[in-house]
Design brief:
The structure is a homodimer of 204-residue chains.
Chain A (H helix, E strand, L loop, with lengths): L5 H10 L7 H13 L2 H16 L2 E2 L6 E2 L5 H4 L7 E5 L2 H10 L5 E4 L17 H10 L7 E4 L5 H14 L5 E4 L15 H9 L7
Helix pairs in contact in A: 1-2
Chain lengths: 204, 204
C-alpha cells in the first residue's frame, strides 16, 4: 500500500510494531489519530513514552511500580515470609486476580534461555538469592516457583532451587493438573499424567 | 482490572482510545512496549505526535501531504482538468488502488451533517469552488462527485452541484450498481433498483 505521506507511513510502520497489529489496523489507528485533537494525540504519545521514562521497578520484588517500593511489598497485611517467583508482570496480575495469594512476589523479568541469549545475569535471580540471604525486607520461609512449564522455565526452576538449597527454606511449586471444569478426554497427556502422579487426598 | 501502576494505567487508557482496541489489547500493547528499548518506544511516541504536528495538507486538493503540494497534484502526468471530490484520505487511497483514475482529487474532510454540527464552512467546499472559479492550478472541465451514498453525502452533492452550476462544467458521479461477482438475489433493493434504472449498453 502506497501512502501519500512519509510521516503517515512512519506512524503506520511504528504502530504495526505493536503485537498483533498489522498494516491495515495500523493505518486505521493512524487515520483515527489524524482526526483527533492535537492535545489528545499528545496525551497518547506522552503516556506511551512515560512507560519507559517514568515507570520504576519495586526495589524488592522488581514488579513495575510508580514508587520505590510497590504497593504489594508495602502492604502491611501481606505475608512477608512467602515469595512467589514469576516470570513477568502479567503473571503477578493473573495471580492477584485469583485473590488466593497473600504473600509477596519476585519478578524475574524472563527465564533462562541460552537460545535467546538470556542468562542468569539478565534476570533478577541474584536479587532473589540476596533477598533470601539478607532477610530484607523480611525473613523468607517459603519460595513458590511459579515459572512457565517450558524447558526454559524448568531450567530456571532448577537453577534457583540449587542456589536456595543452602538456606534451608521451603521451596514449592504450583499444583499442575486438569483444569477445573475440563473433560479428561480433552486434557493433554502430560497434564493428565502429572495430575494422576500428583493426586491428592479426596476432601469428602 | 487493577494495574500496579498509574503510569501503566494511563498508557492502557490512552491506547484503548484507538478504534477497535479494548482494555485487554491496550494492556497487551503497553506491556509489550515496557519490554522494548526506550529508543523504540520513543520512535513510536514521536511518529504518533508528528501526525498532528508535522503533517501538512496539499494547498490544492487538501489531501494529507509532507509537502505544500501533494505528489498527485504535482504529478505532471495526471489529467489536471478533472477533479474527483471525496470525503477523506481513505477514499483517495481506495481510488488510487484501482489504478483507473488519472485526474486530481479534492478532499472535503467530511460531509455536510447538521446533526453533527458540520456545515459548509467546516469543509473544503469553498476551496473547491475557488479552484473551479480561478482555474488554479489548472482549468477544470469535470468534477466527479464521489461522496458516500448517505443522506449527508447526497446533501453535500446537492450543495456542491448547485454552487458549480454557474461555471458550466461537466458534473458526474460514480456509477452505482450490483458489485462485480455479486449474486442479484443478495444485492440490496436500492442498489439493484439503481442498477436497473441506470443500465448501460451491452458491450458484446
Amino acid at each position: 500500500m502506497e501512502l501519500p505521506s512519509k510521516i503517515l507511513q512512519d506512524a503506520v510502520d511504528q504502530l504495526a510494531t505493536l503485537p498483533g497489529v498489522g498494516k491495515r489496523s495500523a493505518l486505521r489507528y493512524a487515520l483515527h489519530l489524524l482526526e483527533e485533537e492535537e492535545s489528545a494525540v499528545r496525551d497518547l504519545s506522552e503516556a506511551i513514552l512515560k512507560l519507559k521514562t517514568d515507570l520504576h521497578h519495586c526495589r524488592y520484588c522488581h514488579n513495575i511500580s510508580d514508587t520505590e517500593v510497590c504497593p504489594i511489598c508495602a502492604n502491611e497485611k501481606r505475608q512477608k515470609n512467602i515469595i512467589c517467583v514469576v516470570e513477568n508482570v502479567q503473571d503477578v496480575m493473573a495471580i492477584e486476580k485469583t485473590q488466593q495469594y497473600r504473600g509477596l512476589y519476585h519478578v524475574l523479568g524472563g527465564v533462562i534461555s541460552p537460545i535467546d541469549g538470556i542468562g542468569v545475569h539478565d534476570l533478577e535471580i541474584n536479587s532473589l538469592i540476596n533477598r533470601v540471604q539478607s532477610g530484607d525486607p523480611a525473613p523468607v520461609e517459603e519460595v513458590i516457583l511459579a515459572l512457565p512449564t517450558t524447558m526454559e522455565g524448568d531450567t530456571t526452576n532448577y537453577y534457583i532451587n540449587k542456589q536456595l538449597l543452602p538456606f534451608n527454606i521451603k521451596i514449592t511449586t504450583l499444583a499442575r493438573g486438569v483444569a477445573i471444569g475440563d473433560n479428561l478426554e480433552y486434557a493433554d497427556e502430560i497434564t493428565l499424567g502429572r495430575s494422576i502422579v500428583g493426586r491428592i487426598p479426596f476432601e469428602g
